[in-house]
Fold:
Amino acid sequence: QQWYQRRVVTEYGILPMGSQTVHETAPHVKSLMIAGPHGTGKRMLVNAICSELGANLIDLTAENICGRYPGKAGLTMLLHLVMKVGKLLQPTVIYIGNAEKTFVKKVAKNDMSDPKRLKKELPKIIKKMTAEDRILFVGTSLTPWDSDVKSLCQCYQKVVLIPRPDYASRFLLFKELILRNGGRLAPTLDLSSLAKISDGYTPGHIITAVKHVLTERRVQQLHRKPLTAMEFVTPLARIDPIYKEEEEQFKAFYDKTTMGKKRQLLLKGDEE
Structure:
């Protein structure tokens, strides 16, 4: 699953934007939404797109633009400047965190960031973009089902779900993170069992657990007291994993999207 998500992000976000010729001849992807549980690396993928392209990143997250360029005229000026700078310094990635909040059905009373500020203008701007504009809107979302799915799909052409890591990915994550944080792989450290019991945890959870165990003091003790898998169990137990119900919510949301409906039609055609 993980390699498939990376391939999709590469095909939709990196390859078309990497070359002006490709961008003008390939199917024009103007916007992309990356959805997944907390800690699955959504923002890291946005940074990876920018890094691979050498692109400029403009952050239009509601919290970031809150209080800036107030009023309708101010918003018009803000978006004009964003698009003008984006075209001059292309390739450009325009990032919107918590993308579902723009199209949320009901704004929380304690949310003072005015998340629906871009609701009317964002789809209009994306629609006006041409193949000559090497600009990509990328949104990330923790709870995409909180939004009006129809409005969300009108704004974001492609939706990519990031799943929790499988056994092989968790095994590699533990191995690499332990080594990067000064740890040593010893016979007492059963990585296979650790990867099995960590099913349901995201890369973010695993990073937290590894950093909790491998303190400066613990690293200094490694020569006489090797690491064991049990040391990582306690910090993991303090974190809530991704439950099946949450995964089902993501799948149910995806089935309602344009891409999800197309996928269901293709599957039905294959069955027939």
